[in-house]
Amino acid sequence: MLVERCAGVRDGRAIGASSAAGPTRVAVADADPVLRAAARLVLAQQGGFSVVEAADADELRQAVAHRPTPVALVDVELPPAGGLAAAGTLDGAATRIVLWDYAPDPERILSALRANVYGFLPKTIAPAALCRAVSGVAAGEACLSRELTADLIEQVAKLARRERSRRRAAALSEREREVLELVARGYPNREVAKRLYISEFTVKRHVHNILAKLGEPSRRAAAAAYRDARDAQNTLEALASTEAA
Amino acid sequence: MTRADATNRWTATEPRPLVLALTGTPLLTGLLRDLLGESAVVRCFPAASPDLQGLARDTRPDAIVVDSEETALELAEVTAELRAPLVEIRLRSRELRVLRHGEWDAEPRPLSSPTTIRNALLGELFRAPTAAFEQRPALAASAPEVAQ
Looking at chain B from residue 82 to 111, which residues have their Cβ under 8 Å from any Cβ of chain A? Predict the structure, then answer.
């Protein structure tokens, strides 16, 4: 169900992204026919783009294969396997992908940017902002709304903190990790000693070494760093399994 | 009043019915205007605007369009007062439902294309006179000759 629309000229004048070579072609790929039509209308009328609609990944592939399409606005949930997967199948086509979603979450945005996506927009974007964003991407810029940029910066900082913790945690011995695991669960030294069949004095020594190796001032801070390190490790393992698949 | 009479009510004379769109998805506003064309005047405000009930009471729309359940619930009472239908567009689940005379449609309609919205709105606008129709002097003055 490919729908082609072009309205690059208004009142006899070329507008928005239109040029001597004609309007820039944009694919709007979304399973929602209402949102597709709404985006098409805005991009065609206000931005001067030529718009092709696609309801799923297959239609997007066809749309991009037929004619050069510099930009594709793709729903994160595009059937059948999501927008990122659909973007992956366009390798080779010179199409810059911009994902959009109702409530974009920072982790998803980060994954998208890792996958060479040019931008991420909320579906609640204002019409003029959508036109500006798509024009920018067509001109080689990336696009991310201010709110999403702030979320992304926070997410990147969190990841950096986790990675730092993971590297420091790698310096711990097997026994120190066991002690830290129990400390992170909130157990006092006496309970840790009982569970690991070691003396309380040995536990204290391990905790002292753990704090020194992690560069943390307290048991609580060490426990938080341990959780960060564990999350970072899980993320790495998940990424490795995704790449292997 | 027959359905044909009701339809003539708007097409024979100005002014056109007023549709108040209170949405959280700004892209929808242009689409609504495009869908209704000359059939209605569409006025759009963000659903996050304060005092939506007051806005609806003072503008006396002939129909209200919203795109969230929260906004629909907030306006349910006012639409009953105004006897104006409320059309709730559920973009995520691709459904549409109508609140008419204080009662929701038994089943939401599948939102298979934008024309579903147009058809539902025009159907509601021409179904029966609203309080706004009777109470807005300009509308009431223009109506009798075609509505009787």
Answer: 89, 91-92, 94, 111
CA A191 – CA A185 distance, rounded (Å)? 11
- pTM score: 0.71
Angle between helices A219-244 and A146-169 (to 10 degrees): 100
Q: How do residues A13-41 score in pLDDT, each as one tens digit?
A: 333 455 556 899 999 999 999 999 999 99
CB B3 within 8 A of CB B130: no
Residue B145 CA to its chain's centroid (Å) = 23
B34 interaction partners in chain A (CB closer than 8 Å)? 41
The tokens 């002939």 sit on which residue?
B62
C-beta atoms of B25 and A123 within 8 A? yes
Model ipTM value: 0.80
Local structure of A224: helix, strand or coil: helix
CA-based nearest distance A227→chain B, Å: 35
